[in-house]
Write a structure and sequence with these properties.
The complex is a heterodimer of chains A (340) and B (528). In chain A, 28% of the residues lie in helices and 24% in strands. Chain A is built from six helices and 13 strands. In chain A, the strands form three sheets. Chain A has a four-stranded mixed β-sheet with strand order 1-10-11-12. Chain A has a four-stranded mixed β-sheet with strand order 4-3-2-8. Chain B is of the alpha+beta class. In chain B, the strands form four sheets. In chain B, strands 4-8-2-15-12-13-14 form a seven-stranded mixed β-sheet, with helices on both faces. Chain B has a five-stranded mixed β-sheet with strand order 10-18-17-16-11, with helices on both faces. The longest helix of chain B has 18 residues. Chain B is globular and about 80 Å long. The chains are: A alpha+beta (340), B alpha+beta (528).
């Protein structure tokens, strides 16, 4: 028995939002009399951090601290329409809608502050800590709370805003497939190192190194959560999972997590990630979406690493020990390729 | 272990922001770590009933007789629901955007098309009593021949899975049984290439495996409305789907969701809400319908399987001159969203590379298995697997480093993509360079200096003349074809012969359409 190490790479891009567009999302932003803001959405937080990312986008756009913003979702009576949380569209589409709503609300807030300070609204700026002051004269200042009270009870203004973001639907030419599928793309490249046991066909992950380009990491910790988790979903897809292990023959379907294999804590390996940010012209602060694409490069990188380790190509997912072992036997043993 | 490479593309960004770019703690963190975040199943309502469905024991069968009389008398049963009780039993998810025909019943009536298809719903006082009643439903099946292989399903004489699509393929533009991509002349370029490599790839289905299975709770509310707690990934998509199936205005429903225990695409299909609400309508009581793990794993939709054939032509110096792809999406017995994924897949071809001649045919095929649906990377994941394995083989074939081979062929700003739009805001080259650096993978200096922002466009911005119709493939000299060095695997079939020439295209409609017409509340104007 020998364990052979190998490295493989893959590079990919991924379209952001529903293919062809036509997938709007809306947002409403309003303040209460204490100068605290609520974002009303009907978008779904699947655990990816939808609420947190839109909260930061709203706070940045309004110019208030993030603690002063709360995102409420998803209630069909109070939240305006959103197409849904899929197709890597949450950050890009909903983020833009929240930005538009926050911009409108900020306009009212600045007008209300200008009236209180008896200056022109164009001469005011926010400090991001809950105050609005005259540019170059920080002492001529008013808190967002006092602005909200004045707007509500003195001026009769609603500090609120509406936002929608829509990439209009593209046609498709039936003959050539000419179309506008997406307005921006995320990118990635991943190197996987594996160890293949030529007696059992088992593949163990040794390490992963990757670079992901996401437009803008709005919250690097949430990005890390997505990329680390997504890469493991990719490993699991590459080496373990399927409800039809002998596809297309629909036999031996697993019914629970005893029969449906996934990697456990003992199977994980170090993953070193670099994040690049090339802002998308139409993204909220340039953001694209890391959600879906993070798993994609892992699958081929693992397959290519297995070839590098033992010289067999497994072109059918998942790459189970059975397939690896059969292929090694068919070629008369492992044939390690040039070490990378 | 996350490093932000702020040095790259720094001139395109303003990094002086206050909240953006900060690793602020999640708004819902406290609720999540203390176990107090409310999920749909955290609602225990007074008088709540439980709904379970009787699932087909066969992959393909006619329903001769369904006898529920004993089940109706079973202890604790409050209502038995049949297909005839569903106001609009036939639906297709993307009918909300006018894409595709209604092809899937909420409850099967005359025929079942996959093993596990719901036939009867039982609403009972407890899950146990519902299961006991399920055991008392008698179904007389007439088994029919089933088809499980996407290419078998396309052969003449194959069993018809779904009568709405008698050729076992989704119909595009009311004309074609597949989505086309035509850019340049792939056959001519293949004939002139130094190496040609044709390979077959396949991906089995895969389960979303969320911690929280699909489910919903529906309850009668005041004033004739219904409140619905749901695990949906798409709130209004589910609202509108339920409004259609139950034939009531959408504001009949008050949907509440928003915190979901993992979706990954498996909670877009509105699997439980329509029957759950119907149960509440018919009994006047709250009803809970939640998938068990086996249901989620075997009868809840998976990411569908795909089979992909790629034929590439490459020059000795490592430039890909042609890529020809035929892909089959295994949609299972019904369309759900696979028809949409096939178009997205065609748009993705030929991957993030500039290739002057690209030819793609993508099929959405019906088979007698659990309907497939969206999953993380929908329409792209399997194609990326195929393309990137192929890229590795091509690099091996021409004796190039796989990193340098990708950088050489990567798309750059200003290049023309195969779907005939200019590439902008690209960053593949930089990702490969940084990954090489991180992995200490040596690449030559000239490849380290290449950039997504340099040397694109120009001749690379051109659309290669594209033949109007497929012509007979030009024969390549026999010595040119390279057999790739790999062992045959016992289960692998040889690639099938090329598809028969397509019939002459009908006259082009004046207003080309991708099959979707405008839907007032969803779509605005179209763009080109």
């Amino acid at each position: 028995m020998t364990r052979h190490r190998g490295r493989g790479i893959a590079s990919v891009n991924y379209p952001i939002g529903m293919n062809l567009g036509g997938d709007p999302s809306q947002a409403l932003v309003h303040s209460n009399p204490s100068g605290k803001f609520t974002v009303a959405l009907s978008s779904i937080d699947l655990g990816q951090g939808m609420k947190s990312v839109t909260r930061q986008i709203c706070a940045e756009t309004l110019g208030v601290p993030v603690e002063d913003v709360y995102v409420d979702t998803a209630d069909s009576d109070t939240g305006p329409h959103c197409m849904g949380s899929f197709a890597s569209r949450g950050t890009h589409r909903v983020g833009n809608a929240v930005m538009a709503a926050a911009r409108e609300a900020r306009g009212v807030m600045m007008e209300a502050a200008a009236e209180e300070l008896e200056v022109n609204a164009a001469d005011l700026e926010t400090d991001g800590r809950g105050n609005i002051h005259v540019k170059g004269a920080p002492h001529r200042s008013i808190s967002t709370k006092d602005v909200a009270i004045a707007a509500q009870f003195k001026q009769g203004k609603t500090i609120s805003g509406r936002g929608i973001f829509l990439v209009p639907l593209s046609d498709v030419d039936p003959e050539t497939g000419e179309m506008s599928p997406a307005t921006c793309y995320a990118h990635a490249c991943l190197v996987a190192e594996v160890e293949v046991d030529d007696e059992t066909g088992e593949v163990a992950m040794v390490r992963m190194d990757s670079a992901y380009e996401l437009g803008r990491a709005l919250n690097p910790r949430l990005v890390e959560q997505q990329l680390v988790g997504g890469a493991w979903m990719g490993v699991s897809h590459a080496l373990y999972e399927t409800p039809e292990p002998y596809y297309p023959d629909p036999v031996h379907g697993p019914r629970d997590f005893v029969e449906y294999l996934m990697p456990g804590p003992g199977d994980i390996c170090p993953h070193d990630i670099a994040v690049l940010e090339r802002p998308a012209p139409d993204g909220p602060f340039g953001a694209k979406g890391p959600g879906e694409m993070c798993a994609n490069p892992v699958l081929p990188a693992v397959a290519n690493a297995i070839f590098n380790a033992v010289g067999v190509r497994i072109d059918d997912l998942p790459i189970t020990p059975e397939k690896v072992l059969r292929a090694i036997k068919a070629q008369g043993g492992a044939r390690p390729q040039a070490r990378r | 272990m996350l490093e932000l490479r702020k040095d790259i593309f720094a001139d395109e960004r303003d990094d002086n922001l206050k909240e953006i770019g900060k690793g602020t703690q999640r708004q819902d963190m406290l609720g999540h770590v203390t176990g107090t975040s409310p999920y749909f199943d955290d609602h225990k309502l007074q008088g709540m009933l439980h709904l379970k469905v009787v699932r087909s024991a066969h992959s393909h069968a006619r329903l001769r007789r369904v006898d529920t009389s004993e089940a109706e008398r079973s202890q604790g049963v409050r209502r038995v629901i049949r297909g005839s009780d569903v106001p609009r039993n036939l639906n297709t998810l993307l009918s909300l955007i006018n894409f595709g025909k209604d092809d899937e019943p909420s409850l099967a009536v005359d025929k079942v098309r996959y093993k596990g298809e719901p036939i009867v719903a039982i609403v009972a006082e407890s899950p146990r009593e519902a299961y006991e009643a399920i055991a008392k439903v008698k179904i007389d099946y007439e088994p029919l021949p089933a088809v499980f292989d996407v290419e078998e399903a396309l052969k003449p004489g194959a069993p018809v899975v779904n009568e709405v699509y008698p050729k076992n393929t989704f119909t595009y533009y009311e004309t074609y049984d597949h989505q086309k991509l035509r850019f340049g002349d792939a056959d001519r370029a293949l004939a002139s290439a130094d190496h040609v490599l044709e390979q077959r790839y396949e991906m089995s289905p895969i389960e979303h495996a969320p911690t929280e299975t699909n489910g919903s709770i529906a309850a009668p509310d005041t004033n004739g409305r219904y409140i619905v707690y749901t695990s949906t990934q798409a709130l209004f998509f589910s609202v509108d789907t339920c409004a259609k199936i139950l034939d009531v205005p959408s504001n009949t429903f008050h949907f509440i969701g928003g915190t979901v225990g993992g979706g990954f695409g498996g909670k877009v299909d509105t699997l439980t809400e329509p029957l759950c609400i119907l149960g509440a309508m018919l009994t006047g009581r709250p009803v809970r319908y939640v998938f068990g793990r086996e249901e989620e794993m075997q009868y809840g939709p998976p990411r569908g399987a795909e089979r992909i054939y790629i034929k590439d032509g490459v020059t000795r110096d490592g430039r890909i001159v042609a890529r020809k792809i035929r892909a089959y999406f295994d949609s299972g017995a019904y369309t759900r969203l696979s028809s949409y994924a096939a178009v997205k897949c065609a748009a993705h071809l030929p991957g993030p590379y500039t290739i002057p001649n690209v030819y793609g045919d993508v099929y959405c095929v019906f088979t007698n298995r659990t309907p497939a649906t969206a999953m993380r990377g929908f329409g792209v994941t399997a194609m990326d697997f195929a393309i990137e394995c192929q890229m590795d083989k091509l690099a091996h074939l021409v004796g190039m480093d796989p990193m340098e081979f990708r950088i050489l062929n990567a798309y750059r700003d200003g290049d023309m993509k195969a779907h005939r739009r200019e590439a902008k805001n690209t960053a593949l080259i930089e990702c490969v360079q940084v990954a090489a650096e991180k992995a200490k993978w040596p690449i030559r200096e000239e490849f380290k200096r290449m950039s997504s922002r340099k040397d694109g466009g120009g001749a690379r911005a051109a659309v290669t003349p594209t033949p109007r119709e497929t012509h007979a493939p030009l024969a390549a000299p026999p010595q040119q074809r390279t057999t790739y060095d790999r062992p045959p695997v016992a289960t692998r079939e040889p690639p099938p012969p090329p598809p028969p020439p397509v019939s002459p295209p009908p006259s082009r409609p004046t207003a080309p359409s991708h099959g979707a017409t405008r839907f007032s509340s969803v779509f605005g104007t179209r763009r080109r």
